[in-house]
Amino acid sequence: MTLTNELQQLHADMRHWRQHLHQFPETAFEETQTAQFIADKLTGFGLDVHQGLGKTGVVATLSAGNSDQKIALRADMDALFIQEQNTFSYKSCHDGKMHACGHDGHSAMLLGAAKYLSEHRNFNGTVYFIFQPAEEGRAGAKQMIEDGLFEQFPADCVFGMHNFPDIPTGHFAVKAGAMMASFDCFEITLTGQATHAAMPHLGNDAIVAAAQLITALQTIVSRTVNPADSAVVSITQIHAGNTWNALPESVLLRGTFRCFSATVKTLIADKITHLVKGICAGFDVSAEIRFNPENAGYPVTFNTDAETAIALKAASAVVGEECVDQQPTPSMGSEDFAFMLQEKPGCYIWIGNGSSENSCLLHNPHYDFNDDILSVGAAYWVKLVEMTLV
Ligand SMILES: [Zn+2]
Ligand SMILES: [Zn+2]
Asked: Measured on CA atoms in the order 128, 131, 137, 142, is the torsion positive or negative?
């Protein structure tokens, strides 16, 4: 019997866990019921379970044989602040929250793999199963690392997986190097001198300075970044003024930028700073810039060569090499698994969630994880462990 067929026997369990998690979604650092559900299952499978890293994170350990090789597998547990519009029986019971990114499926697949591996133990070494909180914008992976994740669980390498609605079911996509972009936010406060709208010469107009600045920021990608590199800079908020006939004292701008290398990331941040200083000086307006004022910003999700080769072998063993896209276009989206890849060599892979007419994109109020792929994803984890820990 093939591994995927064997895991089909676990399919009903995984689907049940997945739909339970879907029904009771919890958002960043508040995944207490989710974490307890997962911890209880892992304890029931006979794993050694640790809770509390990154507030709600769960790490379980499973060893077999006598090798000191150690591999870490990571799933995310958190939901989004989105009002679900699905009507099926297991739709979200928590108003304004839903699993619209498939983290319910990620947790269920890793639980399935943990159950299978605890029953078969057909490997030589130690597996750390990481269930992290707060992937959506709150950098739960970073919090777990700061709380001592890799000191307490010293993995040699770390692997992550995310479903991708544009990829057909039974397919994977993975490549070495950058898979997902870095993500940074910025906030610029321009402060001029308020005045009557009919007498602009008696003040310093922060709105006109902001308008020049917004236009100038658009030249960073077209004139500063190498055309062979990908990057995007977007202003997403403008706040200023509250009446018709007065120039306000200040303007608040907020925005984001994304790219695929640390060099470009530094270049963009430096250029933003440079343009803000230069343009505001020209308009006699003072300026304050804050990078990532609320969140950590995410680094580039960068797969290392050797671990990508292992991931490719494991995925090919499950679905056949012809069903693994080895040259996917990197996504301008971002992923806090990138923080783990800064600490350890590793690989992040996409699993197809199906590209049928009815499937919708991640973060859509009609999205639902495709239960048909649970066995495929769990089989990938099992193969990865069995092929790495020999
Ligand atoms: Zn997401
Ligand atoms: Zn996600």
From this structure: negative
* More confident of the two residues 296 and 362: 362
For residues 307 and 167, state if they share a domain. Answer: yes
Q: Give me ligand 2 centre to Cα 89, in Å.
A: 23
pLDDT of 315 over the 90 cut: yes
CA of 228 to the centre of ligand 1 (A): 28
Of 258, 291, 324, the last residue of a domain is 291
Q: Is 28 within 8 Å of 101 (Cβ atoms)?
A: no
What is the whole-number distance in angstroms between the Cα of residue 183 and the centre of ligand 1? 13
Pick the last residue of a domain from 291, 312, 341.
291
Kindly report the pTM of this predicted structure: 0.92
**Cα 224 to middle of ligand 2, angstroms:** 31
- d(CA 145, CA 338) in angstroms, rounded, equals 12
Total tally of structural domains belonging to the chain: 2
For the stretch 52-101, pLDDT in tens is 999 999 999 999 999 999 999 999 999 999 999 999 999 999 999 999 99
Cα 385 to chain centroid distance, Å, stands at 23
Amino acid 2: pLDDT = 73
Which residue range is the domain that position 193 belongs to?
A: 182-291
CA of 345 to the centre of ligand 2 (A): 21
Q: Mark the residues whose beta carbon lies below 5 A from ion ligand 1.
A: 101
Domain of 260, CATH number, reads: 3.30.70.360
Beta bridge partners of residue 178, listed in sequence order: 302
How many angstroms does the Cα of residue 239 sit away from the middle of ligand 1? 27
What is the spatial distance between Cα 19 and Cα 92, in angstroms, rounded to a whole number? 10
The per-residue pLDDT for 5 is 76
In the reported structure, the alpha carbon of residue 135 is separated from the centroid of ligand 2 by a whole-number distance in angstroms of 7
